[in-house]
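Slide 14.
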Amino acid sequence: MFSWLGKQGGGRERGGGTDVVQTVTGGLRDLYLRKLLPLEEHYRFHDFHSPALEEADFENKPMVLLVGQYSTGKTTFIRYLLEQDFPGMRIGPEPTTDSFIAVMYGDAEGNVPGNALVVDPKKPFRKLSRFGNAFLNRFMCSQLPNQVLKSISIIDSPGILSGEKQRISRGYDFCQVLQWFAERVDRIILLFDAHKLDISDEFSEAIKSFRGQDDKIRVVLNKADQVDTQQLMRVYGALMWSLGKVINTPEVLRVYIGSFWSNPLRNTENRRLFEAEAQDLFKDIQGLPQKAAVRKLNDLIKRARLAKVHAYIISYLKKEMPSVFGKENKKKELISRLPEIYIQLQREYHISAGDFPEVKKMQELLESYDFTKFHSLKPKLIEAVDNMLANKIASLMNLIRQEESNMPTEIVHGGAFDGTMAGPFGHGYGEGAKEGADEEEWVVAKDKPAYDEIFYTLSPINGKISGISAKKEMVTSKLPNSVLGKIWKLADCDGDGMLDDEEFALAKHLIKIKLDGYELPGTLPSHLVPPSHRKPFQTAE
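Slide 15: predicted structure.
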């Protein structure tokens, strides 16, 4: 899709004193290093929020993070997408996956342990070393030659359990690790089991750690074939109610319902629903490579806004500190007054409240710092970031559009994605306007006798009815005029403004397609062209 997917070299070249950006990735990396990183380092942004970005963070493939309670089918979901086992995979009804597993492309199958993984400059995981050995011993990379993994990487996470003991026994801050991944992945998929909708304390904390990444979150209600239609309706309602208590957004999250494994469905009542939902989810994942550059650009903008706010907070705390006596008491006072300071900074610098970090978390972090060692506000650093946001980002957006128009569209291929693309088992095959595509007989013929009865009640002249007569019958479908107008254009094959018996039958067939919930075709498919109109119709084309 984008030229940066195949280029590892520099992102700009100098000529005439100006920077000419060659690739989107190169431009993003250059802006970060020259404009944003100096601000982050000056105000210790990396100690409070997120580690510095590295080369691999700009070059890596799109990543998908799977999160859910134990036995909701996370590992099975990966196996379903890849259509093959991967090294380190364990599946069972008990909590089996106790590690974070990065499933990535490799020429040969194998595992790379966490401690070796975080020193590899080609992988985007180097900054995970700060979580210590307790985490690194529970982190690994599973590599295998799979077509799906040529376009995306998948992160499998440990199953979330309920109870305080499980949270403590991990030995590392599970939610902080999830937050680190959430800031860098392209899609976060929360998996739920149709029989396990409760959201435990740790799962609730995990979801809250995704604050600010709401646009990346999708929800999968898995194992939905184990309940009937009535139960599924209740399960869906209960899931939305549970999510509403932990995800504080006015928008409703997109929930995909299905059974994502390769075994036979236990309940086939909702087969068509599951197929449609799976197709929608596949399209969402397949589009990630195409949207990767925009996602990285969006994440850089979010990071820049947060870094600016952080600089204002730190410099304000520095300004308020006494030079000699009472430093500790003043520090305690400033920490307790942090909500008021936020409001003051909002008014002074015209900043949205949503750009500020969480108050409670910031107060906890500030406890361990000496405010006198903070830096005062440097307008030049702020101006550099403002210039980046106001001018440089716009040029990168133009470059993204150019690369989109010049490069072929890249989507995820292989595995389960290929099984739904073509052939009789592709989504929508033989349905709606595609019905009868592989049959010799005209598909409308089976209903034509019933349509002929209506046709002859409309008083045809010389074998044809006028547009006014056709309209009187067509509006009985209660479809809007915009839809009926499109049906008329499709059915009037010879364009004479009148319909013969075959054209009228075709119009009624297209109305039936629309009433059954299918979309109308943009142009009339060859198998729907009435037999008496096929030769002149094709000649006209």
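Speaker note: Residues 1-21, 536-541 have pLDDT under 50 and may be disordered.
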